[in-house]
Design a protein that fits this description.
- The chain is 30% helix and 30% strand.
- It has 3 helices and 7 strands, in the order βααββββαββ.
- Strand 6 (109-114) and strand 7 (117-127) form a beta hairpin.
């Protein structure tokens, strides 16, 4: 990892904790698994004020360009669950891929599980919206 740990802006940290607590009560099994992973990520994250956050950190509303393990390049915007829209490449923060990306930075390489298959991703670019 570029910065040696997940980095999250302090207001987004509060929002993510709120999303996790609400989803835990009403979510599906898949969402509950995602929430569990999110809570684990939040426990070890470095929390920074907005003015100290590196510009290339994946955040809520960031547009992220990725190189997939099959060399396909895709861009997605990470959004809160109610704004998710796959047709417009808007991924919920609770999706497995978004959870793997949040707090990471440009050039980070990460692994994530999709169904039973492990996948590797490389973050090529992060734009803040």
């Amino acid at each position: 990892m570029k910065y040696n740990q997940i980095i999250i802006e302090e207001n987004e940290f509060k929002l993510l904790k709120s999303i996790a607590s609400k989803t835990k009560r009403i979510g599906t099994k898949t969402n509950q698994s995602s929430v569990k992973k999110l809570k684990k990520e939040l426990q070890s994250a470095k929390i920074l004020p907005k003015e100290k956050l590196p510009i290339d950190i994946v955040r809520i509303n960031s547009t992220v360009t990725l190189q997939m393990s099959n060399n396909v390049i895709r861009s997605f915007q990470i959004v809160i669950p109610e704004d998710s829209d796959l047709i417009h490449n808007k991924l919920s923060i609770l999706s497995p891929i978004a959870l793997s990306l949040i707090g990471c930075a440009t050039n980070d390489e990460i692994s994530w599980q999709f169904h039973s298959n492990p996948n590797k991703l490389k973050i090529l670019k992060v734009l803040q919206n």
